[in-house]
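Progress report, Aim 2. The chain analyzed during this reporting quarter is listed below.
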Amino acid sequence: MREVLIQAAEVVVTMDGTRRELKGADVLIRGGVIAAVGEGLTSEGQVVSAKGCVVTPGLINTHHHLYQTLTRAVPGGQDALLFGWLKTLYPIWAQMGPEEIHVSALTGLAELALSGCTLSSDHLYLYPNGARLDDTIAAADDIGLRFHPTRGAMSIGESAGGLPPDSLVEREAAILEDCIRVIDAHHDPRAGAMVRVGVAPCSPFSVSRELMRDAALLARDKGVMLHTHLAENDEDIAYSLHHFGCRPGQYAEDLGWTGADVWHAHCVKLSSEEIGLFARSLTGVAHCPCSNCRLGSGIAPVRAMRDAGVKVALGVDGSASNDAGNLIGEARQAMLLQRVQNGADAMSVREALEIATLGGAQVLGRSDLGSLEPGKRADLAIWDVSGLEAAGAWDPVAALLLSGPTRVKHLFVEGRQVVAEGQITTLDLPRVIERHNALARKLAR
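Predicted structure tokens for the chain:
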């Protein structure tokens, strides 16, 4: 059984039940699982020096649109609010196909890996020109990241009062049929699963009430999780009040979209009553601070959510609205925004790091991930704090969010090394970037 010994770390941040931080410690990996954490461990397998490094659990990204990596910094969408931004981008996305979806996912996942991410979700809600969710699943397998793709959908086009063009919407019966197909083909409910599939109608303004309800019934029949956008900005709230006669939280509850098997993206405009509903029902939230800033959506009430007991995780959101995909940077932004809103003591570095690791595992229902303790899967990030970014830092753990680095030295997923010495080991990244840029130029033309 293959062993890897991570040896002599400056600090190991365990995120265990007492949030221990162990100085000068080792982590022993055996067969993709953490076998031991402590000092003086030995192994006859691979030894990786962590001298001058902080070791953390792998970061977990709970909201992304990987296909958008091809449409960063698009003119016309750079200064728009959510609905105007979508109207600008929809016609461009309609020109994509299977190769675009696959290559953009490869690029986006590589960017995440280099920022310490070992597990990413993805919300793919459009399938132009024969694209399928399988295209992104193949990309995650190529790079070696743990993956939680969700079969998204849009069914209400412009002609029926929705936002997306009619060319990007699907028949609701076909949507449900394909949800069943991808779950049966790819979902793995076992501990240590590399792929789990979720069901994710795009948003209340792009699908019908019937599809939201049917999707919830299907997901629970299949034992998979549910995901959508909710309460993202003031436009979103106004749409819900006008079309449904209630706020988004009530809409979600009425249609079966609350519970431990549900997580909603953004939730910038949740009311105190909705926060209470999410806490009572164990509903999770994917907080996307950089995207919320970029689109002018506002600052999500993360402090109030956490204080009420809501499960909160991080998401980088799509790279057309962030426009980066750096998860450790997202943790820093989450911390800073709560301080802007609530004061300098509103969120500590360590709480933000907990949200980025253990918080993500809790939101995605992964009790096998999120901390470094025996029996957990061996997903971990190794950060070199001996360089320029952290020079002079008295607290190397705090340095991760207060100064840097923002790129990992090593990354392990299920005990397999995906990043070594700051470089992706599992694919020819320069070649992927070259093809990615060629496809982006084609879309721009």
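The mean pLDDT is 97. The first strand starts at residue 3 and ends at 7. These observations will guide the mutagenesis work planned for the next reporting period.
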